[in-house]
Design a protein that fits this description.
8-stranded mixed β-sheet, 8 strands, alpha/beta, about 240 residues, Rossmann fold, single chain, about 30% helix, 8 helices
Amino acid sequence: MTDHRTVELPEVTLAYREYGTPGAPPLVLLHALGERATDWDGVLPDLAPHHHVLALDLRGHGDSGRPGRYGLHAMRDDVVGFLDALGLDRVDVVGHSMGGVVAYLLAQEHPERVGRLVLEDVPAPFPRPATPVAAAPAEPVSFDWAAVEAVKGQIDTPEPVWLERLAAIAAPTLVVAGGGASHVPQDRIAELAERIPDCRVVTIEAGHLVHHARPAEFVAVVAPFLDPADRAGRSPG
Protein backbone atom coordinates (compact mmCIF):
# COMPACT_ATOMS: atom_id res chain seq x y z
CA MET A 1 0.00 0.00 0.00
CA THR A 2 1.27 3.48 -0.89
CA ASP A 3 0.72 6.35 1.52
CA HIS A 4 0.81 10.01 0.45
CA ARG A 5 2.42 12.32 2.97
CA THR A 6 4.01 15.75 3.29
CA VAL A 7 6.85 17.29 5.26
CA GLU A 8 6.98 20.98 6.12
CA LEU A 9 10.43 22.48 5.58
CA PRO A 10 11.26 26.13 6.30
CA GLU A 11 10.99 27.16 2.64
CA VAL A 12 8.82 24.52 1.01
CA THR A 13 6.36 21.71 1.62
CA LEU A 14 7.64 18.42 0.22
CA ALA A 15 5.18 15.72 -0.79
CA TYR A 16 6.24 12.10 -0.91
CA ARG A 17 4.91 8.59 -1.42
CA GLU A 18 5.72 5.94 1.15
CA TYR A 19 5.80 2.23 0.38
CA GLY A 20 7.12 -0.84 2.11
CA THR A 21 7.81 -1.57 5.77
CA PRO A 22 8.57 1.26 8.19
CA GLY A 23 11.73 0.36 10.07
CA ALA A 24 13.26 -1.39 7.08
CA PRO A 25 16.34 0.25 5.52
CA PRO A 26 15.18 3.52 3.91
CA LEU A 27 15.40 4.07 0.15
CA VAL A 28 14.83 7.52 -1.37
CA LEU A 29 13.78 7.86 -5.02
CA LEU A 30 14.42 11.13 -6.89
CA HIS A 31 12.65 11.78 -10.20
CA ALA A 32 13.73 13.58 -13.38
CA LEU A 33 12.96 17.16 -14.41
CA GLY A 34 9.25 17.62 -15.08
CA GLU A 35 8.32 14.31 -13.42
CA ARG A 36 6.99 13.46 -9.96
CA ALA A 37 7.03 10.66 -7.40
CA THR A 38 4.42 8.65 -9.31
CA ASP A 39 7.02 8.25 -12.08
CA TRP A 40 8.43 5.35 -10.02
CA ASP A 41 5.14 3.46 -9.62
CA GLY A 42 6.08 0.80 -12.19
CA VAL A 43 9.13 -0.33 -10.21
CA LEU A 44 8.36 0.85 -6.68
CA PRO A 45 6.72 -2.37 -5.39
CA ASP A 46 9.64 -4.49 -6.63
CA LEU A 47 12.18 -2.21 -4.94
CA ALA A 48 10.27 -2.27 -1.65
CA PRO A 49 10.52 -5.85 -0.26
CA HIS A 50 13.72 -5.07 1.64
CA HIS A 51 13.28 -1.31 2.02
CA HIS A 52 11.07 1.43 3.33
CA VAL A 53 10.72 3.37 0.08
CA LEU A 54 10.22 7.14 0.04
CA ALA A 55 9.59 8.68 -3.39
CA LEU A 56 9.79 12.47 -3.29
CA ASP A 57 8.17 15.21 -5.32
CA LEU A 58 11.10 17.62 -5.57
CA ARG A 59 10.37 21.33 -5.11
CA GLY A 60 8.29 22.76 -7.92
CA HIS A 61 7.05 19.30 -8.93
CA GLY A 62 3.95 17.24 -8.28
CA ASP A 63 2.26 18.04 -5.00
CA SER A 64 5.27 19.76 -3.45
CA GLY A 65 5.37 23.50 -3.01
CA ARG A 66 6.30 25.96 -5.74
CA PRO A 67 8.36 28.53 -3.85
CA GLY A 68 9.68 30.27 -6.98
CA ARG A 69 13.33 29.68 -6.07
CA TYR A 70 14.72 26.69 -7.90
CA GLY A 71 18.03 24.99 -8.48
CA LEU A 72 19.88 21.77 -7.89
CA HIS A 73 21.51 22.92 -4.68
CA ALA A 74 18.13 23.88 -3.24
CA MET A 75 16.77 20.46 -4.19
CA ARG A 76 19.77 18.76 -2.57
CA ASP A 77 19.25 20.77 0.60
CA ASP A 78 15.54 19.89 0.55
CA VAL A 79 16.48 16.21 0.58
CA VAL A 80 18.73 16.79 3.60
CA GLY A 81 15.91 18.64 5.34
CA PHE A 82 13.53 15.81 4.48
CA LEU A 83 15.90 13.22 5.98
CA ASP A 84 16.33 15.32 9.11
CA ALA A 85 12.57 15.78 9.48
CA LEU A 86 12.02 12.02 9.31
CA GLY A 87 14.98 11.25 11.57
CA LEU A 88 16.86 9.34 8.87
CA ASP A 89 20.61 9.43 9.32
CA ARG A 90 21.60 7.27 6.34
CA VAL A 91 19.65 6.16 3.27
CA ASP A 92 20.11 4.50 -0.08
CA VAL A 93 19.30 6.80 -2.99
CA VAL A 94 18.16 6.18 -6.57
CA GLY A 95 18.10 9.19 -8.89
CA HIS A 96 17.02 9.47 -12.52
CA SER A 97 18.40 12.22 -14.79
CA MET A 98 17.98 15.50 -12.84
CA GLY A 99 17.23 13.44 -9.74
CA GLY A 100 20.54 11.70 -10.28
CA VAL A 101 22.34 15.04 -10.23
CA VAL A 102 20.59 15.91 -6.97
CA ALA A 103 21.62 12.48 -5.67
CA TYR A 104 25.32 12.82 -6.50
CA LEU A 105 25.39 16.37 -5.11
CA LEU A 106 23.96 14.93 -1.89
CA ALA A 107 26.54 12.14 -1.85
CA GLN A 108 29.36 14.66 -2.45
CA GLU A 109 28.29 17.11 0.24
CA HIS A 110 27.03 14.61 2.82
CA PRO A 111 28.80 11.28 2.18
CA GLU A 112 27.81 10.00 5.61
CA ARG A 113 24.11 10.22 4.68
CA VAL A 114 24.21 7.93 1.60
CA GLY A 115 24.66 4.19 1.97
CA ARG A 116 24.32 3.09 -1.66
CA LEU A 117 23.75 5.21 -4.72
CA VAL A 118 22.07 4.39 -8.05
CA LEU A 119 22.32 6.91 -10.91
CA GLU A 120 20.04 6.24 -13.90
CA ASP A 121 21.29 7.64 -17.24
CA VAL A 122 23.18 10.52 -15.62
CA PRO A 123 26.19 12.02 -17.45
CA ALA A 124 29.32 13.56 -15.97
CA PRO A 125 28.77 17.29 -15.43
CA PHE A 126 30.50 18.85 -18.43
CA PRO A 127 29.25 22.04 -20.10
CA ARG A 128 27.03 21.48 -23.12
CA PRO A 129 25.69 23.81 -25.82
CA ALA A 130 22.77 25.78 -24.46
CA THR A 131 19.46 25.54 -26.27
CA PRO A 132 16.50 27.88 -25.78
CA VAL A 133 13.94 26.84 -23.22
CA ALA A 134 10.56 26.31 -24.87
CA ALA A 135 7.69 28.55 -23.92
CA ALA A 136 5.61 27.41 -20.99
CA PRO A 137 2.76 25.16 -22.14
CA ALA A 138 -0.70 26.68 -22.21
CA GLU A 139 -2.31 23.73 -20.46
CA PRO A 140 -1.65 23.04 -16.75
CA VAL A 141 1.30 20.78 -16.00
CA SER A 142 2.34 19.05 -12.79
CA PHE A 143 5.46 21.20 -12.32
CA ASP A 144 6.52 24.83 -12.26
CA TRP A 145 7.98 25.86 -15.62
CA ALA A 146 10.37 28.19 -13.79
CA ALA A 147 12.03 25.09 -12.35
CA VAL A 148 12.74 23.84 -15.88
CA GLU A 149 14.43 27.11 -16.80
CA ALA A 150 16.55 27.20 -13.64
CA VAL A 151 17.66 23.58 -13.69
CA LYS A 152 18.36 23.47 -17.40
CA GLY A 153 20.70 26.44 -17.06
CA GLN A 154 22.66 24.67 -14.32
CA ILE A 155 22.91 21.45 -16.29
CA ASP A 156 24.05 23.33 -19.42
CA THR A 157 26.75 25.11 -17.41
CA PRO A 158 27.51 23.00 -14.35
CA GLU A 159 29.78 24.23 -11.61
CA PRO A 160 33.32 22.83 -12.14
CA VAL A 161 33.40 21.61 -8.55
CA TRP A 162 30.65 19.10 -9.33
CA LEU A 163 33.02 17.20 -11.60
CA GLU A 164 35.97 17.56 -9.25
CA ARG A 165 34.03 16.27 -6.26
CA LEU A 166 32.75 13.08 -7.86
CA ALA A 167 35.87 11.56 -6.32
CA ALA A 168 34.51 12.48 -2.87
CA ILE A 169 31.54 10.12 -3.20
CA ALA A 170 32.05 7.35 -0.66
CA ALA A 171 28.93 5.32 -1.39
CA PRO A 172 29.19 2.19 -3.51
CA THR A 173 27.55 3.32 -6.72
CA LEU A 174 25.71 1.66 -9.59
CA VAL A 175 25.29 3.63 -12.81
CA VAL A 176 22.49 2.40 -15.09
CA ALA A 177 23.03 3.62 -18.65
CA GLY A 178 20.29 3.70 -21.27
CA GLY A 179 22.47 2.78 -24.24
CA GLY A 180 22.45 4.06 -27.79
CA ALA A 181 18.78 5.03 -27.85
CA SER A 182 19.30 7.57 -25.08
CA HIS A 183 19.83 11.24 -25.94
CA VAL A 184 22.47 11.36 -23.20
CA PRO A 185 26.01 10.79 -24.58
CA GLN A 186 26.98 7.40 -23.22
CA ASP A 187 30.67 8.29 -23.08
CA ARG A 188 29.77 10.99 -20.56
CA ILE A 189 28.00 8.38 -18.44
CA ALA A 190 31.14 6.22 -18.60
CA GLU A 191 33.16 9.27 -17.54
CA LEU A 192 30.89 9.78 -14.54
CA ALA A 193 31.43 6.18 -13.46
CA GLU A 194 35.19 6.42 -13.89
CA ARG A 195 35.37 9.41 -11.56
CA ILE A 196 33.35 7.82 -8.72
CA PRO A 197 35.74 5.63 -6.69
CA ASP A 198 33.54 2.57 -6.01
CA CYS A 199 31.34 2.33 -9.08
CA ARG A 200 30.30 0.13 -11.95
CA VAL A 201 28.13 0.65 -15.02
CA VAL A 202 25.35 -1.56 -16.35
CA THR A 203 23.85 -0.72 -19.75
CA ILE A 204 20.23 -1.56 -20.48
CA GLU A 205 19.34 -0.73 -24.08
CA ALA A 206 16.19 1.17 -23.24
CA GLY A 207 16.88 4.83 -23.93
CA HIS A 208 16.80 7.55 -21.30
CA LEU A 209 13.70 6.26 -19.47
CA VAL A 210 15.20 2.95 -18.42
CA HIS A 211 12.87 2.20 -15.51
CA HIS A 212 9.85 2.97 -17.73
CA ALA A 213 10.89 1.15 -20.89
CA ARG A 214 12.47 -1.90 -19.25
CA PRO A 215 11.16 -2.02 -15.67
CA ALA A 216 11.87 -5.72 -15.11
CA GLU A 217 15.46 -5.37 -16.31
CA PHE A 218 15.94 -2.23 -14.24
CA VAL A 219 14.73 -3.98 -11.09
CA ALA A 220 16.81 -7.08 -11.87
CA VAL A 221 19.94 -4.93 -11.78
CA VAL A 222 19.08 -2.44 -9.05
CA ALA A 223 17.31 -4.59 -6.44
CA PRO A 224 20.23 -6.99 -5.82
CA PHE A 225 22.63 -4.06 -5.58
CA LEU A 226 20.44 -2.47 -2.90
CA ASP A 227 19.63 -5.70 -1.03
CA PRO A 228 20.83 -5.18 2.57
CA ALA A 229 21.46 -8.91 2.94
CA ASP A 230 23.94 -8.89 0.08
CA ARG A 231 26.36 -6.26 1.36
CA ALA A 232 28.73 -7.88 3.78
CA GLY A 233 32.23 -7.69 2.42
CA ARG A 234 31.09 -6.77 -1.07
CA SER A 235 31.42 -3.74 -3.30
CA PRO A 236 29.61 -3.06 -6.57
CA GLY A 237 32.75 -3.57 -8.63
